[in-house]
TrEMBL record:
Domain Hemerythrin-like: 9-117
Protein name listed in UniProt: Hemerythrin-like domain-containing protein
Gene3D superfamilies, per database record: nmb1532 protein domain like
Domain of life: Bacteria
Xref: Pfam families: Hemerythrin
Length: 170
């Protein structure tokens, strides 16, 4: 992946957002179980990698520099999405609620992306006003992303782990 493709860390994350939106659109149009399964797997892989690079690298770089509520809510929104990601990955298109789960996941992600990209008070707009070097951050995230992509292709990625939300066993 050529580093020149993205001007900075925010451009990299926005490109990820566009990619997953496109995959959700393709899923909506898909009719066969095999293409639904393939697209759902691609969506879940993208989201696992994206939430990991944000939570490991991007969000911590801005702790104390932007509104805490913005960051805290982002972690909780990620956790909500992770529940559906793990469930969709474990299921198959023939299962009850499968399409509904993918649809609700797309709506959760749409809301979350809006919170990140919203002009002026959104997370990224707040991040741009800080002194954090977004180019250094881009390189750290690209390196981690390449590592995770390689893992996804070889052993596969582990289950998405919640960060803020506690999973209560019934
Ligand atoms: Fe994001
Ligand atoms: Fe996010």
């Amino acid at each position: 992946m050529p580093r020149e493709t993205f001007t900075d860390a925010i451009a990299l994350l926005k490109a990820d957002h566009r990619k997953v939106e496109d995959l959700f659109e393709q899923f909506e149009k898909a009719t066969s179980s095999s293409s639904k399964q393939k697209l759902a797997h691609a969506i879940c892989t993208e989201l696992k990698i994206h939430t990991l690079i944000e939570e490991e690298i991007f969000y911590p770089a801005f702790r104390g520099k932007i509104e805490s509520d913005t960051l805290d809510e982002a972690y909780v929104e990620h956790d909500g999405a992770k529940v559906l990601v793990n469930d969709i990955e474990a299921g198959s298109p023939q299962d009850d609620f499968y399409d509904a789960k993918v649809k609700v996941l797309s709506e959760e992600i749409k809301h979350h992306v809006h919170e990140e990209e919203m002009p002026s008070e959104g997370m990224f707009a707040q991040c741009r006003k800080t002194d954090v070097d977004l180019v250094v951050l881009r390189d750290q995230m690209l390196a981690r992303k390449e590592e995770l992509l390689a893992q996804a292709k070889s052993a596969g990625l582990p289950l998405a782990q919640p960060t803020a939300v506690h999973l209560i066993a019934a």
